[in-house]
Design goal:
Blueprint lengths: L1 E6 L13 H9 L2 E4 L6 H9 L4 E3 L7 H4 L5 E6 L2 E6 L8 H8 L5 E3 L7 E4 L6 E4 L13 E8 L2 E8 L1
Parallel strand pairs: 1-2, 2-3, 5-6, 6-8
Antiparallel strand pairs: 1-9, 4-5, 7-8, 9-10
């Protein structure tokens, strides 16, 4: 079993804003951290990597140029034989699931961000899913800050939204 901690749209640093302690606890306890983009600075990526577990991230639309040298726009992460696609902006809500399934045809799931709106959606047959963890630091129009947990086990990945 591999435990995932999933965040996106952290937009750090910004003023006194920090990752909530409950988020940090989950990041430390994970086997792998996935970040869906909009970290903002390379310094924050360094801080995230210093937490301990390996970090896999994608470039967001407002990330500084120094991050462009370190992060891809899209990537596929293999975890215990399960392939998870990652992209920051998965496009408009209408048709998103089908578009991402076509884009990441060899993946079981896609993690994304950009909207700050938490989302977990599966195909009818359950063979593919998309997941947006929302944001632990910049909730925008959402009531609460959120992140995601994931578990990869027996060739499958399961995501859960975590309210912080």
């Amino acid at each position: 079993m591999t435990r995932l901690a999933i965040i996106s749209d952290t937009h750090l640093p910004r003023g006194q804003r920090r990752l909530p302690e409950a988020c940090l606890e989950r990041l430390r306890a994970a086997d792998l951290i996935l970040h869906g983009g909009d970290l903002i600075t390379a310094a924050f990526l360094d801080e995230l990597e210093a937490i301990g577990p390996p970090v896999r991230a994608v470039l967001g639309n407002v990330d500084e140029p120094a991050l462009a040298a370190r992060l891809p726009h899209a990537r596929v992460v293999e975890v215990d034989g399960v392939r998870i696609g990652m992209v920051h902006d998965a496009g408009p809500a209408r048709g998103r699931l089908e578009r991402q399934r076509a884009r990441f045809a060899d993946c079981a799931a896609v993690v994304f961000g950009h909207s700050h709106i938490p989302l977990s959606e599966r195909t009818e047959d359950g063979s593919f899913q998309i997941f947006n963890p929302g944001s632990p630091t910049d909730r925008r129009r959402q009531r609460v800050h959120t992140m995601g947990d994931g578990v990869v086990e027996r060739g499958e990945v399961e995501f859960a939204l975590v309210i912080l």
